[in-house]
């Protein structure tokens, strides 16, 4: 189904902020579809979800002509387009590296499955965890088998949830196993090998924006 | 130490993207300080951490005159300034709402303590968890005691890690207990009461930017 000659958006021309916004639009469209809404204008979409209408039009125009004059966007159609742009039109197979509390929580996070991500395996070093499974049934394997399993299970994305001191060696193992994209929850510095896309989630940044809000007078006194 | 008449940055004039960048600068300065670096130019800071020098200068200039011509920024000084701007010059007391895997992982997340956030309590409904504690020693209380405990423990921020179907009622309880800022990890729609700042972390968005990367040719075939 891929038409190589019509590809409009090489990843290096589209910033991560844009893809984050596309994800958010997709989330809004999901809600509209659930609410039975068939069409929506960029203006109404912006108002309902506290977004910017001009930004929506610009972001979407980059990938094609999705709006219909006088109608706006067809919710179902735009949703399918966005899923395709974001590469969500196929199942993506995900392994969670580290089966501690965070790893287990991520393996069972209900949002992932809903958007087409399939958590197929967890990996850990602890003998008492290997062979066990998460609450939702994701099996835990020995991290020494990562290379073998990553091939067998066709892992697309690794989610790292290991202690800071283990992060570098686990990342290197994942890359050696052929995993091309990593979502990293481990804090601390890390050297990113060539040929892999790593996205770090620093949970502290989110807390600090709340701290800023409180410091600027949100204290209610 | 607060000089109210010189306050330059009411929270509604500074976007969340800016505060997120300030957090990231702070993280970089921490690393520079650990590495023994005394001064750094915006240019060098940008190069070393893949940031934008003009953006750094603009973000910082908004809050004051921190750079020194011919020197750049004093790492220690700028770090203290940023901590103050972000409201991190005092301990912030955090409660985690929900003591499942995610709640427990967040309660024990080592990054929080390092930046001055103190996780003082978890709350849950499950009788077998109440009275227990997380691996790092955060006690778990009955969520019905949230109001009483939030006062006694002077909770500044609530971190919500409950199932989607419990999110709204737990948020309402937190607000009723006087918590003014919420970091929300629960997926799904939620009505935000007036007078509270809620920041939602949607872990799926991060995964989708990796999916986009893979879809655009990161597959390595």
Describe the structure.
- The structure is a homodimer of 221-residue chains.
- Helices cover 43% and strands 15% of the residues of chain A.
- Chain A has 221 residues and is α/β, with parallel strands linked by helices.
- In chain A, helix 8 (164-176) links the parallel strand 6 and strand 7 (181-184).
- Chain A has a six-stranded parallel β-sheet, sandwiched between helices. Chain A has a two-stranded antiparallel ribbon with strand order 1-2.
- Chain A contains nine helices and eight strands.
- Chain A has two domains: 4-85, Winged helix-like DNA-binding domain superfamily/Winged helix DNA-binding domain (Arc Repressor Mutant, subunit A, Orthogonal Bundle); 92-205, NAD(P)-binding Rossmann-like Domain (Rossmann fold, 3-Layer(aba) Sandwich), CATH 3.40.50.720.
Name the CATH architecture of the largest domain in chain A.
3-Layer(aba) Sandwich
SSE order of chain A, one letter for each helix or strand: HEHHEHEHHEEHEHEEH
CA distance, first residue to last residue of chain A: 59 Å
What is the average per-residue confidence, as pLDDT of chain A, rounded to a whole number? 87
- Counting helices, strands and paired strands, the structural category of chain A is alpha/beta
Number of strand elements of chain A: 8
Largest sheet of chain A: 6 strands, parallel
- Beta-strand percent range of chain A: 5-15%
Helix content of chain A: 40-55%
CATH class of the largest domain in chain A: Alpha Beta
Query: Biggest sheet of chain A: strands side by side, in what order?
Result: 5-4-3-6-7-8
Number of domains of chain A: 2
Uncertain runs of chain A are: 1-12
Named CATH topology of the largest domain in chain A = Rossmann fold
* Fourth CATH level, the homologous superfamily of the largest domain in chain A: NAD(P)-binding Rossmann-like Domain
Oligomer: homodimer
Greatest interface and its participating residue counts: A-B, 70 and 70 residues
Count up the helices of chain A: 9
Rg of chain A computed from alpha carbons, rounded to a whole number of angstroms: 20 Å
